[in-house]
Amino acid sequence: MLNVRIVFCVMFGLAYEAVAWESVVNYSLQPVFYNFNEDSLINSVSSVAEASDVVSDHLLEVSAWTQHLSLTTTMRHNVKSEVSQYDFTIKELMYTTDMADWEVSLGKKINSWGVGMAYRPLDILQAEDLLTTDHESQAGVNQISIERYGDTSSSGIYWAHLDKPINQTSLVLRYTQSEEQSDWQALLGYSKQCALQVGAGISYILTDALELHASTLFLSRYRKSLYLPSEPNNAPLSNTYSWKQVQFSEGGNGMIGGNYTWQNKHNLLFEYWHNSQAWTESQWSNHLQIIRRRLALQSVSNPVRIKADDLTASEEWVSQPYSVQNNFFYAISIKALA
Amino acid sequence: MKSILIASCSLVLNLCSAVYLYADTETQWLKVADSYRQSSDNFQVTTRVRLYKQQTLEKEKFYEVYTKPGQKSLVLFKSNAEKGQKVLMIADKFWMIMPKSRRPIRITPMQKLLGEASTGDIATIQWHDNYRAVTEPMQEINGQKVNILFLTAVRKGLSYQSIRLFLVPEKHQPIKAEFYTGSGKLLKKAEFVIGTKEGRERVSKMILTDEIDRGRITEVAYLKTRSHNLSNKFFNAQFLAQNRALVIQ
């Protein structure tokens, strides 16, 4: 039922440094093999959906920064079975200047705030895509920020315009503090669409080998995409776009995890999280029922007329930022982090 | 009776001052030994690390190390494959910053210790600030009598919980060292190579032999040492996670 996706990644870097600026160039080659079969294209019309077996991405990422400017760009060359295309993206372009004890930044900036490696509830301005295996930086968010750095603390005010997951403007206050055995942070966010967001996180060194981390976020309002066809479920023909943004009130996201390192350099990372913005079990079950009904109708209906809705039903769910509400993640490596 | 009391008090005071002077002597020896490894409180060292396995050179890496008073060290990874990585150490607190993540990762002492070249070794942590020393009987090494100090960490998060340090008498120049875990297990042995920099004798190279992974030798060479006045904010993990060029004043 699942696609088999094999990713080989070859990365190497070049670096050049001058007196007042630094830069990093990364090139990665990401060949991907998809083992498509009829079952994996849930309810899609196979003649419409592209089913390339081999996809190859060549990725060139250039980062350069000075005292005041920071730039990250990506050029991606995507080669599918028959198609080849180039994408050029500016991931970050930011100007920063000092005003008294404060740092003022203006432009497109990459923010990553939360603790942990997989899902980080406190990344409220831009969340990492958990589904991708790409080795490229996230795209930044347009913003004006004011930050102040002390010996062991930092505070910041961020006014940002977000495109994803919904178009909105957010104001966020954030404070971080480092203690002897822990780093903790707290943030407060507000936007018209999401109302209030309040969160806190901690990374705690429990022993020489064990680090624990946790974070939580309260959302007074949040949205998620649901498949809600306007026609009755047994209607054979549907040619409308049935994905809708549904608003919910009072949700909570939380994550707890840790990192243990053995003397033989083996490293275990484990994390468990709950995400109220992802589908519940009943929402998943409801969605699968709709797909099965439509799959049954497809055999008796004109596939051309139902294809638009079928495609949205079968393919949009995989592009959702969060898949399931409760997740457990672990990673074992044979190399210590540092 | 009165004279006996005075004599007793005098004896106790003399003993106390002798113990104090003795402890102070050991600290002085350590300070002098440290001065062979560092030039000032705010210093920058260009460091080359070569990793040998069975006498074959496996890897060569370069680091830029900035140190500030208050046990602050910043290690910038300069080799092409690691460019942009940073490790920040403030006393027992350690952070790793990867170039693409834009967030500092708090790491455990074990993770810091087990890196290919332990960042603690690269950062040249001051012995006199971080260890309590007691003298051990002198030994003869290559026909030369040497002083021995046994150092015990005063803090838990240090890479090595105890060190046996061999010093040239009078000069207090470090010759070699043995590094131990908290349980007393020998982790590494070090030999110090002395060269001349800025008109005085300094440690120019440290050769570390791994006692657990036999056949593995790490050569840490201090290529260039100079003073710096790097702003304090570069020793804040949150600031480091931003891509900013270091401005050396």
Task: Please characterize this protein's 3D structure.
The complex is a heterodimer of chains A (338) and B (249). Chain A is mainly beta and 338 residues long. Helices cover 9% and strands 52% of the residues of chain A. Chain A is built from 2 helices and 16 strands. Chain A has a 16-stranded antiparallel β-sheet that branches. The longest helix of chain A is centred in the last third of the chain and has 18 residues. Chain A is globular and about 70 Å long. Chain B has 249 residues and is α+β, with helices and mostly antiparallel strands. The longest helix of chain B has 34 residues. Chain B is globular, with a radius of gyration of 20 Å. The interface between A and B is large, with 50 and 44 residues.
Mean pLDDT across every amino acid position of chain B:
82
Number of E strands of chain A? 16
Class based on secondary structure composition and strand pairing of chain A: mainly beta
Task: Report how far the terminal alpha carbons of chain B are from each other.
Answer: 68 Å
Given helix and strand content, the structural type of chain B is alpha+beta
Number of E strands of chain B: 13
Distance between the termini of chain A: 39 Å
The number of helices of chain A is: 2
pLDDT < 50 runs, ≥5 residues of chain B: 11-23
**Sheet having the most strands of chain B:** 13 strands, antiparallel
**Quick one: which chains have the greatest interface?**
A-B, 50 and 44 residues
